[in-house]
Amino acid sequence: MSDLTVGIPFGCLLGFIAWFLVRYLMAGIFTVNQNERAVKTSFGRAQRVGEATTADDPITAMLTPEEKQRYAYPQVRVIQPGGPYFKWPWERVYKVTVATETVNMAFDPMAPSANTGGTILDAVTKDQLNTGLTGQIRFKVSERNLYAYFFGVKSPIAHIMGYFVSVLRERIANFEAPANTDGPAVQAGISINDLRKNLRDINEHMDKECISSAARYGIQLDASLITSIDPPPEVESALAAINTAHNQVSSDISLAQASADQKIVQSKRAVEIETLKAQAEVEPLTLMAQQLSELKTNGGPGALEAYVRNVKLGLYAQADRVVMEVK
Predict the structure, then answer these.
(1) Which residue has the higher pLDDT, 289 or 70?
(2) What is the largest distance, in Å, between two alpha-carbon atoms of the chain?
(3) 160-174, 213-227, 281-295: lowest mean pLDDT where?
(4) 136: part of which helix (H) or strand (E)?
(5) Dist. CA 301–CA 295, nearest whole Å
(6) Measured between alpha carbons, how far is 165 from 142 in angstroms, rounded to an integer?
(7) What is the CA radius of gyration of the chain?
(8) 74 forms bridges with which residues in the sheet?
(9) CB of 194 closer than 8 Å to CB of 175
(10) Most confident region among 14-18, 65-69, 236-240 by mean pLDDT
(11) How many beta carbons lie within 10 A of that of residue 216, not counting itself?
């Protein structure tokens, strides 16, 4: 009985050791895939890189000084792809894919049914016209700010989508088309036409404004692509009529401007012709005055009077009748 009594606790001890090795030591081995990055925490605290923060990183260059203080996250040690790695039972590993993802810009992760099921994003233009926007955005997790993604905000995807939508709606509400200095001045049209003509500028503006998203939420917006801006169906026909009238006015103004330019060119040409005629009439008189001046200077006394007498005689010979003044 004594040998049996001693053997039971020893078997339990071996079983506990085997369970501990499998449960904690073997399970503590992990790997990181090629498109993943990982962060390890010890008792809930992420392993950090000294006292460094994101305020020292170039990703915060687009933030204001006040925003740099608000979004100063600690820089953590990033576990690169590979392995096997090991973690103790009191440690935890957080993994995330850094591959680029594409979603509809109307997608709301907190309410998937919003924005017509995540397909059309509503926005109001400067002339109070409600429009529907469709397009996509590309984003990926920023490896340089994993602390913000894992621990800084509760739902980083929701934050980045909300930030993008707020910037986009503000841009739509205040957008004004660049002034056209090449063509004739025309009355400004409705804002949705300006938006449609300047989709590229709007996309570039969104890319520029969202550069700071990596410093704010740990997600980097790669690009945005707004593909269409459409008014509500009930005003589509009215909008088409307005556009037709606006195009007609623009055409009439262009024709009037062309006609005016043509008349200006013709007037300039007529002035040039009359100027040349006047110069042709003045030139002989100028030459004659020159000759008379030289004759008076170089011909001696009485030369000018003799010249005038000879001219008179020539005129008398051509005249049919001469009227003489009698003193």
Answers:
(1) 70
(2) 182
(3) 281-295
(4) strand 130-141
(5) 10
(6) 20
(7) 45
(8) 53
(9) yes
(10) 65-69
(11) 26
CA atoms of 96 and 83, how far apart (whole Å):
16
Closest-CA residue to 191 (of 125, 136, 289, 130): 125
* This prediction's pTM: 0.63
Beta partners for 220?
140
Question: With pLDDT > 90 as the criterion, what percentage of the chain qualifies?
Answer: 8
Phi, psi angles (nearest 5°) of residue 91: -105, 155
| Model pLDDT, residue 1 | 45
- What does the pLDDT read at residue 184? 43
Residue 74 host element (H or E): strand 74-76
Q: Which amino acid is at 31?
A: T
Token digits for 14? 């071996």
Contact 131, 125 (CB under 8 A): yes
Looking at residues 45-73, what average pLDDT do you find? 87
Q: Provide φ and ψ at 134, rounded to 5°.
A: -125, 150
CA 97, CA 142: separation in Å to the nearest integer?
10
Query: Which residues are bridge partners to 123 per DSSP?
Result: 131
Q: What angle do CA 223, 226, 228 make, to 5 degrees?
A: 165
Contact 152, 76 (CB under 8 A): no
Across the chain, mean pLDDT equals 80
Quote the tokens at residue 51: 């006292």
**For residue 138, what are the β-bridge partners?**
102, 223
Phi, psi of 124 (to 5 degrees): -110, 130
Residue 308's CB is within 10 A of a number of other CB atoms, namely 11
Contact 173, 206 (CB under 8 A): no
Can you list the positions of beta strands (E) in the chain? 29-32, 36-42, 45-46, 48-53, 74-76, 82-86, 91-97, 101-104, 121-124, 130-141, 219-230
At 53, give phi and psi (nearest 5°): -130, 170
Q: What is the C-alpha to C-alpha distance for residues 217 and 203, in angstroms, rounded to an integer?
A: 21
Residue with tokens 């390890």: 40
Of 56, 54, 59, 57, the C-alpha closest to 73 is 54
The sign of the dihedral angle between the CA atoms of 47, 50, 53, 54 is negative
- Enumerate the β-bridge partners of residue 40: 93
What mean pLDDT comes out for the span 287-304? 74
